[in-house]
């Protein structure tokens, strides 16, 4: 099991929704994301695809795009992921995700 320390739930919702915050930090990230059955790039690809499929173009997606980059997904790979998912999630959604991805990856590669 990977050792992933997540505190976003407790930081943002700890006092307002302590149970949700605990499950987010300890179960979703502490257990599910830490499970080594899938590598981190695959997990990031799945999350981005699900967000796209549901039309969830939010700050949470921007954070997951950053995680994807941190997990080794290159600019070329994210472009291919978004393009492929566009046919299933919708072209306007892909345009919106590309705008976030350009902010995350920039022109660095």
UniProtKB/TrEMBL annotation:
PANTHER family: 4-CARBOXYMUCONOLACTONE DECARBOXYLASE FAMILY PROTEIN, BLL4600 PROTEIN. It comes from Alloscardovia macacae. It holds the Pfam family CMD. Residues 18-103 form the Carboxymuconolactone decarboxylase-like domain. This is 4-carboxymuconolactone decarboxylase. The lineage of its organism: Bacteria, Bacillati, Actinomycetota, Actinomycetes, Bifidobacteriales. GO terms for molecular function: peroxiredoxin activity.
């Amino acid at each position: 099991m990977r050792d992933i320390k997540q505190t976003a739930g407790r930081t943002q919702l700890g006092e307002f929704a302590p149970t949700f915050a605990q499950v987010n930090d300890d179960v979703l990230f502490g257990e599910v994301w830490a499970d080594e059955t899938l590598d981190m790039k695959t997990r990031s690809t799945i999350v981005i695809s699900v967000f796209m499929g549901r039309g969830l173009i939010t700050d949470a997606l921007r954070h997951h795009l950053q995680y994807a980059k941190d997990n080794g997904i290159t600019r070329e790979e994210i472009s291919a992921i978004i393009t492929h998912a566009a046919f299933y999630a919708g072209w306007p959604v892909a345009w919106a995700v590309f705008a976030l991805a350009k902010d995350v990856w920039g022109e660095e590669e």
